# Entry
Amino acid sequence: MSHHGSCLCGGIKFEMSKAPAAVVNCHCSICRDSHGATFATQGIFPAESFSVKEGEDKITEYESSTDFFRVFCKSCGSHVVNYPRNRMFYSVAVNYLEEKIQPEMHIWVGSKAEWYNINDSLPQDEKMDKLMAKLQG
Ligand SMILES: [Zn+2]
Ligand SMILES: [Zn+2]
# Structure
């Protein structure tokens, strides 16, 4: 099943041709700051499945940590996707997708906002070891 997304202004449209390998709520401080949110719900897609359909010229990137890039829309500021330099995966903000998909675990729980209590029964990963184990199959 493919997935489709667009940013707040609609200028950037993108598509993933495959299902995500994992869907996570990321509580790391960089996701929290770049999204301005308590945590970021991200679909981890195989890199080759991701393509920009429209608005390549609206894309700007920020290297938020060494070899890790965050992709924003120049017009509306939506933080639509991030990826490591080796393009092992594309991590897409689920909020921008047309198809609804559910998170399956929390990652970087050790860095979560201290005023927020996780109150669901999804597995919690102190960092992202469980996620990496899953991605590496
Ligand atoms: Zn936009
Ligand atoms: Zn994060």
